């Protein structure tokens, strides 16, 4: 007992209230070998965060090597992994996206000259659906960093903001999230907004801005709570060797090459700029490698800082951009559709030297993506993928599959378009978009939003409204600041912000904000929202809608045709049949694919195939099986059995009736085989349905009725011609199919 007490003698518990629910922080009990760690309980959600850092800097790197991992453990929801190995594999896309959301507000608060490896691991151990594990992990990470000895200028806090019935809700519960018009994650320091990640159902700029401010205000109480924990148990921050280049070295190199660098940067062509910079780098190294031996990396850093200094001075002092544009001007734009002949839809969007080609593929609803995560989302029928090959930036690098950046950009475009995607009832398809970045000079994620809208409309997807995306940059110096629309690569590298906003003319659908500084003031956020709104409306009106003003009325001939119907849930088994016999017959007869999903007391039936008439025939057959035929209806059916007293005729897969010998023909029939043989397709009329559901059919009555007539209720069978010549009389008309 004494040893146990000694082990946990640093165990501390801190409690507060967070959006009406208890937030409990435990330290000193678990993961004590990490530089800093904590266990955070929010409701029944439990997340452990641990921070570690290397004792020495990593050699040969010119960046701060930070890694952030958000780990989803399926035991947190009482679930065994579905993989063959029965253990968690690579992170889900949701986990990768959450890792990025945690990373973005904390990274700018580390010293820029530190090169010690730093690792942050947030492990989700228990999930309460009403208490977001993502928000809990962000708060836990901030606490672990704050109490650790790792240099960091925090704390930060994060909240989720919902909008329900015209009211803002902080950290909405599961029920509120289901009806909220927006899902906005806001991270803050004690004075500024550090990160925004948002998806919304076309909300106005004012609604979004006020929601961001509500989140920023809610963060302040948690920041004060974390500061209290830090003051009580926080460790002193360790010293590290600075990697900042010597000031005299920087000034000497800047003086040597500043004018040449200015001339090199002053162009709107990235390729020309890169070519102009090569001889400058060579000249600088030729002169300064001997003066500063074994400091090639620091010399390159000085060249980078010289470029950064020039670009920022141009923007702040002269309102000059490297490509000659005004601060609110957009690069040359172009839009095209129908680029690829055999795909279901394609759209090419060009903004300056950034080009994104998006392809739409339509498929049966059964081809939706199945998800295996710790939240309630188990599937999605709209999928967006983003590819960023090395050739798009003129580099040579082998393709190794999508990285975190590609996954993040694809998810941003997916979120931007989700509010305008038609429901499965309106458009019963699975939809996959693939955005291929064929050329990149900044803001490819928003280019993929524009290209995707073009591609969807080219495919004939009836989207609710077209969506465009644009980015806004920022330059700050003390209290001075300046924003500019449509930043290109150089302005992104040397600037302080990449504020991406996508939306329709009516409102915002997605936001993602990346910062290199500690945060934004409310005025900066408002200015960015206003400028991006005007810019995306311009892009829609002047370019995109001129390429294709509305979704095409017809799908591509290469796209599957899709129809759906609803049947009672208790009839699903009849449509499927024993061992799937009935549904297999329908699929084979009509050359279609049939998917059925039970939803409460109804069954949603989706039929897909390449021939529209056959799809309609299959739907009609399914409706017939589920709801039964009407007395007096006329069908074409297949003779399945011959008896002495008549013939059994199948009018739909698994549904047959008896046509008595007396009703086989308009004249007297001596033997059944005188009129029909097994396998013949004949026309019949439903005369009676007895109390056991058995059908009495008449070929005689059908022939009489169709003499010169054209009944309507007859598309439930495939359009096969009657065999043997006995089913049509001269001058008679057949039922329509």
Helix content: 25-40%
Q: Termini, distance in Å? A: 84 Å
Strand order of the largest sheet: 8-7-9-10-21-20-18-19
> Major beta sheet, specifics?
8 strands, antiparallel
Number of continuous helical runs: 16
- Mean pLDDT comes to 90
**SS strand fraction:** 25-35%
Given as residue ranges, the uncertain stretches (5+ residues, pLDDT < 50) are 1-5, 708-737
- The rough form would be described as elongated
Instruction: Report the radius of gyration as a whole number of Å.
Output: 33 Å
Number of E-state strands: 29
* Broad structural category: alpha+beta
Oligomer: single chain
Please, could you describe this protein's structure?
The chain is α+β, with helices and mostly antiparallel strands. Helix content is 31%, strand content 29%. The chain is built from 16 helices and 29 strands. The strands form six sheets. An eight-stranded antiparallel sheet has the order 8-7-9-10-21-20-18-19, with helices on both faces. It has a six-stranded mixed sheet with strand order 1-2-3-4-6-5. Strands 11-12-13-17-16 form a five-stranded mixed sheet. Helix 9 packs across helix 10 (444-459). The protein is elongated. It starts with a helix and ends in a 31-residue tail after the last helix. The model is unreliable at 1-5 and 708-737 (pLDDT under 50).
